[in-house]
Amino acid sequence: MPADAARPGRLRRFLDSDIGWSFKRTPAAWLSALVLFLLIASAFLAPLIAPQNPYDLSQVFIDKAEIPPIWSKDGEWPFLLGTDPQGRDVLSAILYGTRVSLIIGFASVVVSMGLGVTIGLVAGFHGGRIDNLLMRLGDTVLSIPTLLMAILVSAIFRELLPPPLREPFAAVVLVVSISLTNWVQYARTVRASTMVERRKEYVLAARIIKVAPSRIMRRHILPNTLTPVMVAATLNLGLAILSEATLSFLGVGMPITQPSLGTLIRIGNQYLFSGSWWLVVFPSLQLGLIVLSVNLLGDWLRDALNPKLR
Amino acid sequence: MHEDVTTLAPGLDRNPANGGGMSNEAILTVKAASCRFDVSLPALTRLISRAPRRILRAVEAVSFAIPRGTTFSVVGESGCGKSTLARMVVGLQRPTEGSLRFADIRRGDGTFGPPRVQMIFQDPYASLNPRWRVGDIIAEPIRELKLRSSEAETGIRVGDLLEVVGLSRTDATRFPHEFSGGQRQRISIARALATEADFLVCDEPTSALDVSVQAQILNLMVRLQKEFGLTYLFISHNLSVVRHMSDHLAIMYLGRFVETGPAEQVFNRPRHPYTRLLLETIPDVEKPNRERRPMSGEVPSPISPPSGCAFHPRCAIAVERCRSERPLLRNDGEIRLACHLA
Question: Which parts of the sequence belong to the ABC transmembrane type-1 domain (chain A) (predicted)?
Answer without folding.
Answer: 98-298
